[in-house]
């Protein structure tokens, strides 16, 4: 049915639990996984004429976010290794995580995006917006939204 599944993570406990479910789903289907972390683009401080010396350079920021991305996708890669699921991982940079997720899925030949939902509804969903909702509205490939029935325990 599905051959390549994009599983995205933001490094949160909810995201890790969703990713674990995504890897199990991929294993059941015999699909491979693309683990993705989307980092925000570098932002210069606004309304400042001189950048403070303690503010990271763009190179330092990108290196730090690449390390964070490797750390965040590592749990997906480890889960795939443990379950015998082929996995590729990557970190991307974008202003809009949702649009980047959709773009990468298309570029890498994924036929499903597996993404989590925090289960907000009503005003919470309206006021906060949602990467998941944006992915749903922009993706041309199927999107499977995994909703946790119980919030993870605090770390």
UniProtKB/TrEMBL annotation:
- Domain named Rhodanese is located at 49-132
- What's a Pfam family in this record? Usp
Output the CDD domains linked to this UniProt entry. USP-like (cd00293)
| PROSITE patterns per the UniProt record, alphabetical | RHODANESE_3 (PS50206)
**Assigned protein family:** Belongs to the universal stress protein A family.
This protein's name:
Universal stress protein
**Taxonomic source organism:** Pseudoduganella lutea
């Amino acid at each position: 049915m599905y051959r390549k599944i994009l599983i995205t993570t933001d490094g949160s406990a909810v995201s890790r639990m969703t990713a674990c479910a995504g890897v199990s789903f991929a294993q059941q289907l015999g699909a491979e996984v693309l683990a993705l972390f989307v980092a925000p683009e570098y932002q210069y401080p606004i309304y400042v004429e001189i950048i403070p010396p303690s503010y990271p350079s763009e190179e330092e920021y990108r290196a730090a976010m690449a390390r964070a991305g490797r750390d965040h996708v590592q749990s997906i890669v480890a889960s795939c290794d443990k379950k015998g699921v082929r996995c590729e991982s990557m970190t991307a940079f974008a202003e809009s995580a949702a649009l980047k997720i959709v773009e990468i899925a298309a570029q890498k030949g994924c036929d499903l995006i597996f993404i989590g939902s925090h289960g907000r509804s009503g005003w919470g969903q309206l006021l906060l917006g949602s990467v998941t909702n944006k992915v749903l509205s922009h993706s041309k490939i199927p999107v499977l939204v995994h909703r946790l029935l119980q919030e993870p325990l605090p770390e």
